[in-house]
Each structure stands twice: as C-alpha cells, then as structure tokens.
Amino acid sequence: MARRSWGIAAIAFLGGVGGGAVFPILPVIGVDLGISGFMIGLILSANRITRLGFNPITGSLLDRFGARWPVAIGLVIESLGTLAFSVALTAEHPAAWFLAGRIIWGVGSSLLLVGALAAVMAIAPARSRASMTAGVRTAVSLGLPAGLVIGGLVADQISNNAAFLAATGLSVAAAIAAVFLLPDRAGSAEPPPTRSGLRASRTQAWRELLAMPTLRIIFAANALLFFAVSGVLLATVAVLVDTRQLYVFGMNAQGSAGLLMAVLMGARASAALASGRYLDRSNSRTSLLLPAMALVAIGFIGLGQALTVPGAALALLVIGAGSGGLTIPMITLLGDIAPRHLHGRALSIYQWSSDFGGALGPAAGLELGRYVGYGWSYAVVGLAVLGMTVPLRWLGRDERRTG
Predict the structure, then answer these.
(1) Could you give the C-alpha distances from 189 to 38, 145, 178, 338, in angstroms and in order?
(2) For residues 163 and 150, what is the distance between their CA atoms, to the nearest angstrom?
(3) Secondary structure of residue 285 in the 3-state scheme
(4) Degrees (nearest 5) of the Cα angle 210, 214, 220?
(5) Per-residue DSSP letters for 33-84?
(6) Residue in 116, 110, 106, 86 with CA at minimum distance from that of residue 98
(7) What percent of the residues of the chain are helix, what percent strand, and what percent coil, each to the nearest 5?
(8) What is the pLDDT of residues 86-118, one digit of tens each?
(9) What percent of the chain has pLDDT over 90?
(10) What contacts 366, CB < 8 A, 6 or more positions away?
C-alpha cells in the first residue's frame, strides 16, 4: 500500500509542475508583452477560478467512477493548457492565449488534485492515513512551486518556451503512469439514489458534508492558507526579489525567486511528512494546528521586513514549515470525519476552498504590494492568518470533548 501511495504521489507531482511554470515567468515578461498588472493577476488566478466551477463535478465523478480515468484525462487536458502558454509567447494576443491556457489547465488540474487525494484515501488504512496522505499531499503541494523552480531555472538558462514545453512533456508522462497505477475506485461505492430521484440524492450528499462544523472550519482555514501562500506569496515573490534586488548567485529575478522558493518547498515537504508520521502515532489530530498556523503568520511578517537574501530565505523556511504542518492534520481529520463514500465530494470542497483563497491572492497581492509596499502587505496577511487560531482552538476542544 505504501509503495502504491508513492506512485500516486509521483503522478500528482509531475502533473502539478505545469501550473507552476507560468508563475515566475509571466509577472516579469508580462510588462514586455504589454499585459497590464490586473490582467496578469487575472491570468494567474484563472485556473483556480475555473476549478471553483469544476471541482464539484470532479467530486461527483470520483465518488461514482473512481480516480484512474478522471486523473489520466485531467493530465492530458493539462498538457493542452501548457501548450497554449507556449503559443502565447509569439501570438498576436498573448494575454488571450495565456488566459485560455490557464482555464484549460484549471479543468485538468481539478481532476488531478482532487483525484490524487481521493485515490490515496481509498487505499490508506486509518492507522496510516496521515502519513500516506502526507506523501501525496506533499507531492501535490510541491508540484506548483516545483514548476516555479523548474520554470524559472529553465527560462533563465534556456528560454521561456523551453520551460512550457518541458511542463507539457511531464504532464503527458504522468497521464500514462496514471492509467497503470491509480485504483479503479476512489472510495466505497456511492449508495444508490433514493426514490426522490438522483438530483435529490446528490443534493443531500452535499448538504450532509456542509452541515458538519469541523469540515466548515477546515475549509475556511484552508482558504486563508492558500490565499496567503499559494496566492499572495507565489504571485509576488519574483517581483519582491526584483524590487529589493535579492538576487542569488547572480541570477535574474525569475531564477532567484525559484531558488528562494526551493527553501519554502523543502521546509513544507519536511514538515508535512513529519506531521504525518507524528499524527499516526498520536491520539490527537488537532495538536499541530495552532503552532503551525502561528509559524505561517510569523514567516509572513518576517518576509515583509527581509532586506537580505538570508533574511528572506529564513522567512520562507518558517512559512513552509507552518504550511506543511497545518495541511496534513486538516486533510487527515477530513478523512476521519467525512463518510467514506463521500470522500470525493469532501475533497472537492476542500480543493474549492483552496482555489477560492488562491484565486483572490495573486491580484490582491500584486495590487496591494504596488500601492503600500510588500512590508505592509505581508504584515496584513500575517495578522489575518493569526485570526484563524480562534476557530482552530474550537477544533481542539471539540476533539477532547468527543474523544
């Protein structure tokens, strides 16, 4: 089982690279291509906006048919999206091509991101759910920033077009692997429709999930986390590096941002895997939530004040450790609470909350940073993250009360 979960993780990682490849490239070349700041933010958010509408469909498909073919098809769709990025570099209307590519990629990534987590939950026993989920979730989390690193380095050393073509090839390879490695079903079979009809049965399933207070708090905390890390931070880090001249090894803004984000990636992966192992040995699913959220807030405030490369790297390390330590307890708790035959839908809502926060983040981060500076904008994000500790404390009290 553990070996199979790592195969699922590898597929999720390769599929996520294509979305990250555009992040270090577009904010910098957007001005050269004549794309406005608002349009750049919209393009970066377009895949998440698309997933907001498609994620519920993904959840229903997974609960009904399993993960194998939805994930494989999603990866093929992703490859078409990254090809559109390549065309955009020489097209007469580059903004339209970038926007179309992000929309296409959004549909494919919905099937991949939700499907990979649903697949591992289908094969993970409760005693090792946290560590197996951590492996797949870490791969999902690393895919986007890894694309940022790969995209930035390939663009810096070869060309922007080479970065997009490399991402396309990785998505195709992952699609082929998905056909052979993913399980047929993502969870227990969905119960048959009630006499009131299929539509009523589906509505009842969504209401059942949204009526659970624990899941509502998880969805809200996840939305805020993705607004901060996958929205504001990923969209602005290359611009921050360029503005403050935080260049690494003589590289330009794209390459330097990619290397700095590697620090966050490493810390996030390490913290996620460690938290998974800890949770499988612990009687509590919530003990890590408050300290992890506090680390994310401290890291953002520190990044806003960082004027040197070591200072920025330290702040990103703290943010990575906090976000990795926060995500795994929430997903594991979701798997414990949500009915098994509704795991696909529950994870689609979780992904919906990720996309809602992530869709708001790029435009908000770029505009706020432009008008008030990154010091103040990152401080505001850090304080907002600290505010989430109140509902997270309720999760801990509820666990102690019912456990």
Answers:
(1) 44, 34, 21, 14
(2) 7
(3) coil
(4) 75
(5) TT--HHHHHHHHHHHHHHHHHHHHHHHHHHHHH-SHHHHHHHHHHHHHHHHH
(6) 86
(7) 85, 0, 15
(8) 888 888 888 888 899 889 989 999 999 999 999
(9) 33
(10) 27, 37, 40, 41, 235, 236, 239
Alpha carbons 77 and 106: distance in angstroms, whole number: 9
Annotate 83-128 with DSSP letters as a single string: HHHHHHTTSSSHHHHHHHHHHHHHHHHHHHHHHHHHHHHHH--GGG
Angle at 134 between CA 128 and CA 139, to 5 degrees: 140
* 31 falls within a domain: yes
Q: Which pair of structure tokens corresponds to residue 398?
A: 């509820």
Task: Tell me which residue of 84, 66, 91, 89 sits closest to 19, measured CA to CA.
Answer: 84
Output the domain CATH number for residue 59: 1.20.1250.20
Summarised one tens digit per residue, pLDDT across range 304-321 is: 888 899 999 999 999 999
- What does the block give as tokens for 157? 């050393």
- Total number of domains in the chain: 1
Evaluate whether 382 touches 300 at the Cβ level (below 8 Å). Answer: yes
The pTM of this model reads: 0.83
In a domain, 195, yes or no: no
Pair of tokens at residue 15? 């599929």
Q: Are 95 and 35 in contact (CB under 8 A)?
A: yes
d(CA 179, CA 365): 38
pLDDT digits (tens, 9 = 90+) for 185-219: 644 445 545 444 455 567 888 988 999 999 999 99
Report if residue 249 sits inside a domain: yes
299 and 316 Cβ atoms separated by less than 8 Å: yes
Tokens of 100: 């179309």
Domain that holds residue 154: 2-188+205-402
The pLDDT tens digits of the residues spanning 27-58 come to 667 767 778 777 877 887 788 889 999 999 99
171 within a domain of the structure (yes/no): yes
